Amino acid sequence: MTDVVRFFARNTTRQRRFDLWLWSWLVFLCVPLYGIDRDRSLNQLYHTAWTHLEGAPGEVRALAQTADGYLWLGTATGLFRFDGIRFEPYKPQSGQAFPQRSISSLFAEPDGGLWVSYWYGGASFIKNGTVTEYGKEEGLPSRPVLAFARDRKGVFWIAAGKDGLARLEGSRWRKIGPELGFAGPANTVFVDHTGTVWVGTPTSVVYLMEAGNRFQIAAQGLAAVYNFAESPDGKLWMAETGYGVRAVPLPAKSHGKPSPAIFVGSQAITFDKQGSLWITSLGGGIRRVPYPEHLHQTQTISPSAWQFHNSEIEAFTQKDGLTSDYIYSVLEDREGNVWIGASGGLDRFRESPVVSVPLQPISYRGALPIPSLHSFTTSALAVGDQGSLWAAGVGPQLLLKIQKDSIATQLRDHPAECAYRDSNGVVWFATPYSVFRLSDERLDAIGLKQGAITYNYDGAEPDGQGLTLRRRDLPTAGGITPNPRPRVKALTEDSLGRLWISMESGTFRLERAGWTSLESLGGPQGTATAEFTDSQERIWFGFANMVAMLDGDGVRIFSGKDGVQVGAVTSIQGKGTKIWIGGELGLEFFDGSRFHPVHPSDGSALGGVSGIVVAPEDGLWFSENRGIIHIPEAQLRQVGSSKVEFETFGFLDGLTADLRGPLSSPSAVQTTDDRIWFATTNGVAWINPKRIVRNAVPPPVLIESVIADGRKYGISTSLKLPPRAGDVQIAYTATSLTVPERVRFRYRLEGQDKEWQDAGTRREAFYTNLDPGPYHFRVIACNNDGVWNEAGTVLDFVVLPAFYQTVTFRILCVLALVAVLWSLYLLRVRSIEQRHLERNRAEEMLRHARAELAHMNRVSTMGELTASLAHEIKQPIGAAVANAEACLRLLNRNQPDLPEAREAAMEMARDARRAADIIDHVRSLFRKDSSHQEIIDLNEVIQEMVVMLQKEANRHSVTMRTNPSEGLPKVMADRVQIQQALMNLMLNGIEAMGDTSGELSINSQLRDDGQVLIAVSDTGVGLPTENADEIFNAFFTTKSQGTGLGLAITRSIVESHGGRIWATANSGPGATFQFTLPIRQAGAA
């Protein structure tokens, strides 16, 4: 049971004691796993400083983080909010102005509200862009509010210095007085996990339990308590500005020894999620106690003790990169980052995957140790014992042993260029002149004169102890003599412990009998740039686009045809049967028969690969042009079958210097404590695969502003943009504060974007020429470790239409268009009616002309038939005269023969009627009556025309024959016009035969298509061979006399009746003219 719980449980029941004890432990056990590792020193944390140069406001007095993730800064120049990228002076959406600019304290409510107090009195509450002001009128003390707190019952408290303690009741503040057992100044107020309210005064600490009704004194005789903080185990700590930082001395502990105090004048302290205590100071920077529960209980800690030598307390000052040594506030955000508000700006500490260890060797001027001014550029790494690391460097030329991230041993004048640890734990170093063997605290040199002593600095002065340097002679054999300046490139050993050394003169095996070259065993000639011995005792040698494998005494060479295409091989490593090679052109693996490239899933290409480390259960690690690359174990299992996913660790992950890459041999190793070390241009850097902290907090996503055509609009639920918004810019952000530079976004404007738009790290969306109407903008984001906030945030807005884009305008346009179309329609109708009228007139004129033409044709034809017609008429007239004379004779008899006279009179009447019929028929052909259609019998019309033209035919010695079809359907036609058509065709045939005693045939028949066919065939001269297709054209004739209108009129008559006329040449002499008439016209009648 913790001290606080024990103190408050003295007068309660056992059940109450147990409940509080259990609750306290649950709080302790539920501390999130993320946060800053307590075993990391301050120098191992990733520190970022923002000053005026980075856009930060100066003198950050107060810090708070609201529920939306924003970090709020209270400064002497106003209120700012920070999303990790941009510092923004806060301006309420309501347009209200803050009463003051100089801010003294901030407090964030769980529901998203923010309290702000001002240096010269007064307070404001901000929520949803609206500001509520509090002053004297609302009962707020006139002095500045130093601290805010809300207890578990919802009561809101403030500490206002000399104006004492007050709480908010409704909309007014009530000062706490003696009626609650409290009177006097209040420097700070705090609510712990039990709901107890703590108040720090200039001389004491008082408290009010959640169920209590009066404040009680917890401790007296104190020196200005200005801040409280509760540790994860429930212990309450206080900052006494006039004394130091320590746990609150509770009465229940008064009989024991006092808690240790950290003598630093502090106004703000906090515990992070892992339990480290952070302490601000006014002039001494920031302090951190990683394990406050382990502070010595026997003595207090003086400034001289912790400032330089005591590992229980760490310091980080302006000399270390802090913006200022004057610290006002400290805050841990929800992702576990620690923020510092200082007089010079803003600082952040966070845990990074990579820890850079700058190495600063010590040189001596006499007996005085002086830190070297040269940066230590690492040239080779080797694994030591118990988590230690050996690092060789160039400029200065030193060999360093690194233990617990600091230099434990330093050897001068050993510019090693290559290092290797064999299976027995022996470390080999190669310099430009020789090879060293380090084992059991003894350093042996191969091929050098006997040396004296080296140096091991464990304190301020050399103690005379070091590694003994001994000389070993190099054996020679087979006429092979190593180069006196070997410049060793790579080292490895075989299963028998024999060392393979690659140097400028070749690649050799060192054994008791002498040197054996790789070339003599069938291997390539030249210097191997990488060597490795696998678990099957095979030795691999890397060359330029070539790999040699020594298995026993047999060498197998792999080249480009076997897939080796990485350029100069800089690293070879393996695990089981899989071998990995890296080079300047990428990474490849060996599947047992050939090498295959490794393709990243993002489509990029790997380059500058070196320092491959195969970590058990933690995948593949190596140095690459972009930084440290890690391919997880699960991805390695599918390499070859698909592209692999990988992660990169660079500057933002704690790598503060460039990797040496292939310039170091090797450039990466894994020590016995699981850490993987990389050579850099300023020392070394390490990463522990088993202790990488992932950011599991999805970033809150917010819309910050909307700008349309240069004008900024406030964010609201009824956002309306003006008409004709040409350029719309939507600014959004995500408040992930760990590595905000790696926060990625996707957005989509529904109705405009068909797919999600990948914005990368850009925090703005741009649209142009949006149509009027409602829009739904959605944006999502992921944090630096790829954890997405899939819900994101949305913005609904409306682009207002211009007048010409409104529905009313469109209706008016439609109506206007309808009116125009109606007018055009009326004009069209009138035009059509006019054209129809004109056409009718033209057709009427055409019909009249045709009728006149037909009449003229008939008259002309009848004129040609005058002799025949006269003879035809003369015959009945003569018969009538003869009958009349016979009738007179019969009547003049003595006894008139009346019956015979009657018979003669009747014959005379018949002859007269016959003559009258002939005259009527002739007259009908001469008439100009309009077309009159009736049902006619075509066979009858044919017979009539045969009778009429018989005399004409006889005159030309032409025989006329008819072949009428029995049962021929009647048709609807103009009888006179059909007679004229037949007469034209028959006369045309008679005239074509001349006086050749030809034959004219007139046939009728019913065709299969339901039309009546009339054919007039002659045995005359036939059709003109050159102009047969023109015979039906007007005024075309082959006769010396004639108008050329007969056949043209005939075609016009036939076509006006819906028929068709054509002429064909007979197989013998003559031609046949045929025309059809549709029966349907008869049906129509």
Automatic annotation (TrEMBL):
Which GO terms label this protein's molecular function in UniProt?
A: ATP binding; identical protein binding; phosphorelay sensor kinase activity
Q: Which keywords appear in this protein's UniProt record, sorted alphabetically?
A: ATP-binding, Coiled coil, Kinase, Membrane, Nucleotide-binding, Phosphoprotein, Transferase, Transmembrane, Transmembrane helix, Two-component regulatory system
Listed name of the protein:
histidine kinase
Superkingdom per UniProt: Bacteria
Q: Which organism is it from?
A: Alloacidobacterium dinghuense
EC annotation? 2.7.13.3
CDD domains according to UniProt? HisKA
Histidine kinase domain boundaries: 868-1081
Coiled coil: which residue ranges?
832-859
Name the residues that span the membrane.
Answer: 20-36, 807-827
The top EC class is transferase
Does this UniProt record's set of keywords contain Nucleotidyltransferase? no
Q: Which InterPro entries match?
A: HATPase_C_sf, HATPase_dom, His_kinase_dom, HisK_dim/P_dom, HisK_dim/P_sf, Ig-like_fold, Reg_prop, Sig_transdc_His_kin-like_C
Q: Which reaction does it catalyse?
A: ATP + protein L-histidine = ADP + protein N-phospho-L-histidine
